[in-house]
Amino acid sequence: MATTNHPLDHGSFHTFAGRASLTVGSKWAFTTAVLIILFWVLSGPYFHFSDTWQLVVNTATTIVTFLIVFLIQNTQNRDARAIHLKLDEIIHSLKGARNEMMQIEKLSDAELEIITKNFDKIRAERERRASSKKPSASK
Fold first, then answer.
1. Cβ distance 53 to 43 under 8 Å?
2. How far from each other are the two terminal CA atoms of the chain, in whole angstroms?
């Protein structure tokens, strides 16, 4: 059977990561984690607070954290990409906007610093103009 390139036909990792990030970010996932830790703490006396008892939670939390980092990064990457595309569309649609600002995230740090300094100058000039237009308060 041939696969289709439908715009909403995402890869299996994309689908898994999206669903997993929604699940692990829910109040139910947090509640489950709290209950697991509570169970682990309460089981301490039964296992005499042994090294194995401690190792179980340390290993489990390390593995879960390691995997969740990749899911979070995947979600953040997609969100950032979507936001950049939306901003590019806004820039493109505005008259007077500089189209060279589109895809600005791909510039080097040095190039971004130059643009930042230019905007700092623009901001300072606008503040200077705004403060010179304010009428002085006299009694």
1. yes
2. 85
Among residues 124, 80, 126, the alpha carbon closest in space to that of 104 is found at 80
CB atoms within 10 A of CB 17: 20
pLDDT tens per residue, range 63-82: 999 999 998 898 888 888 88
> What's 85's DSSP letter?
H
Kindly indicate the confidence band of residue 13, based on its pLDDT and cuts at 50, 70 and 90.
Answer: confident
Q: Tell me the C-alpha distance between 36 and 22, whole Å.
A: 20
Contacts of 23 (CB under 8 A, 6+ apart): 29
Q: Are 17 and 75 in contact (CB under 8 A)?
A: yes
Output the CA torsion 81→16→10→106 (10° steps).
Answer: 20
